[in-house]
Structures are given as C-alpha cells and as structure tokens.
Amino acid sequence: MWQRIKTAIVLVIIVGIALFASSAPILIVPLLMVGAGISAHEWTKLMPQWRYPALFVWIVLALTSISLWLASSWVVWWSASIVIWLLALAWVRVFPQKTQWYGRRLALMGAVILTAAITAMFDLWRLSPWWLMYVFLLVWCADSGAYFVGRKFGRRKMAPNVSPNKSMEGLAGGLATGLLVVVIISVFKLQLTGLALISFVALSAVTILASVLGDLFESMLKRQAGVKDSGTILPGHGGVLDRIDSLLSAMPIFALGFWALQYFGILVV
Fold first, then answer.
1. For the segment 192-239, what is each residue's pLDDT rounded down to a tens digit?
2. What value does the CA radius of gyration of the chain take, rounded to a whole number of Å?
3. Alpha helices (H) along 69-128
4. Phi, psi of 100 (to 5 degrees)
5. Residues in Cβ contact with 266 at an 8 Å cutoff, skipping those fewer than 6 apart
6. What is the pLDDT of residues 13-49, one digit of tens each?
7. Of 260, 224, 241, 268, which Cα lies nearest the Cα of 35?
C-alpha cells in the first residue's frame, strides 16, 4: 500500500507541474508523448502474437505527434474512438462467449484510441489546464465512489466475466459521487443555468459511464491475453494503461461533447 501511495504522489507532482507550470506546451506535450509511447508498448502485450512492438509504438507516436498540431483532425479522432467504444460495449456484454474482436484489428483500434485520448487531453489543456483537471477529478471521484459503495453494498455483478468485483451498486455510487462533483462545479464555480447546466451535467454523466467502459475493456483485454497487468513501470500500480484505462474512453467523449456544446452555442467558455 505504501508503495502505491508513493507512486501516486510522484505521479500527481509530475502531472501537476506539466499542467500548470507553463502556459506553453513545452511540458505537457513531452509528457503526453511519453505516455503515448509507453501505452502503445503495453498495448502490444495485450494483442495476439504481435511481433513488431517497436513498429506499433512508432506508428502511434507519429500519429499523435502529427495530430497534436492538426487541430482540424481532432474531432475526427474523437468520433472514430467513440465508434470503437460502442463496439467495445457490445463485446464486453458477450465476453467470453464471443471473442472475434481479438485479433490484428486491435492494432488499428489501439492507434485510434490512444491518438484520440492524447489529442483530447491536449485540447482540454489548451482551453485551460483546469478543464483537463476537471475530467481527471470527475473520473477519480467516480472511481473512488464506486469502489467504496461497491465494497459495502455491492450485490449485483455488472460484468462478472470481465471484472467480478464491479457491481451495479458500485456503478450507481460512482455515478452519484461524480455527479455531486459536477453539480458543485457547475452551479457554484461555472454558475451555469438552464440548458447549459442540463447539457453540461448530462455530458459529465456520460463521461463517467464511459470511464467505466474503458476500465472494463482493458480488463477484458488482459483476461483474453492472460496477463494480470499491462506493465510494471509504475510500482504498486502496474502499467500506464492500468492507470489511464478509464481516461482513454472518458477523454475523447468529454472533449467531443464539450466541443459540440460550444459549437452550437449552448456553452460559452
């Protein structure tokens, strides 16, 4: 436990400095690229018989580096990732009876998922580091709420073949905890009202649910690949993918919804 705490403290410090130490992208971009590279390497361990891990890493790094500077491509990446997450939802529901998805297509899926998440993080940071921190806080609070409520009251399993410890009660607890944070920030910090408030709360709720799907999808991948953790780079936590699996789905969904709310004039930031 102490090892997990020490690692978490170091990660919080590194992320905090990258987010807030400079308004120029001289810190956040290197951090995102390092995260993308490590995540891509770990992704190859979850794919069946991938012989060229270095090639996949370079492909992901090339896609993310190019996409970071092509803002016009971001919505396309986010939309493509949402299609994949909708497919993932169907796959989680029928696992392990049906696993046709487990094959070389995981390379394409991984490239899209990672690129979409990285560009979403950068876009939110570009608007304000606090918007990126908001999604972090949303996912972390929901995850904590789900853990404690599920541990105390969990009875009905959400996806027993994928993650036996997750329950519907835990999901409800996580959603309630996350929405409490959403309402407090929406009303007292952002001072949203009317349609803007309803839309923002709805987007945040969908983001919380999406974060659960990201967690379940990685758990399903690890079960199919026969590994406990995606890596060992983070002492006490496993790999980078183990720490950001929820964010991989939450980030592009929130970024796309946030973009849409601004595009249609519902939310002004």
1. 999 999 999 999 999 999 999 999 999 999 999 999 999 888 887 789
2. 18
3. 74-94, 105-127
4. -65, -25
5. 195, 196, 199
6. 999 999 999 999 999 999 999 999 999 999 999 988 7
7. 241
